[in-house]
């Protein structure tokens, strides 16, 4: 049809300049070399550390990508926020709250001590112990069905079918002794139903889903948009689920550094060890970054800087 495309009016302040602001943030931090690529998952150590992508998606559907925004990488811990949302959607606020807490551990994301200090009750779903307990809540009679539910749910957030990065999965499955220990520790405290090895396997697969910075921004914008994917128009979760999820992400999304981040940038944000970060501004949209070099807490250095810049330039800070 020879009909002119309707131009999106966008929703962010100064939306006419968002493209330019995203490109500006990319150029500003392109030379930043701080941090180190994760190497405890062997295949991640081989990634090109120079990759750098940014994306902003508005709840009105505006799309703004820069740099390597379409370069695939594994979602890793960013999956935790979306699986948590699916768990609350399935079981409700109260039940999930009883099984996994909502407070920061103040400790590393893979800490065993944090679990021991709390009698095996995971303090929050953003660290590995809490995420494994959350994945166990996915519906399904078998681990295969649970994995399919995770994949379908995260694909609905992204607005396209996501697939497994088989190389990342195999690399992590061969080296995830600590996560398997966390699974068995949860089981020993009576806090995990089912076979810990199978649940950790579903968790390992969810972390190996392949996404781009653009995908992460769409997924985040779905939470910003009260649960409706702004690109596909599909309702993925309810607005209540988005509120619960974003509260927990604000408290613990960047692990022990979450308070610093909230103080400086003022947005719920979730990171993953492959270098992705997505920050969500409810009612406005989401900004995502991908850059593999990480700080000591496991958060992408350049993504944090660029998203901080975007938050300031676009007026996204919640406070
Ligand atoms: O379970 C793990 O250790 C990884 N699959 C995910 C950890 C992660 O992404 C921590 N984040 N920054």
From TrEMBL:
Keywords: Acetylation, Hydrolase. InterPro entries: Beta-lactam/transpept-like (IPR012338), Glutaminase (IPR015868). GO terms for molecular function: glutaminase activity. It catalyses: L-glutamine + H2O = L-glutamate + NH4(+). Its EC number is 3.5.1.2. It is an enzyme of class 3 (hydrolase). Signal peptide: none annotated. Substrate binds at residues 77, 128, 172, 179, 203, 255, 273. It comes from the Bacteria. NCBIfam families: Gln_ase, PRK12356.1. This is Glutaminase. It comes from Microbacterium sufflavum.
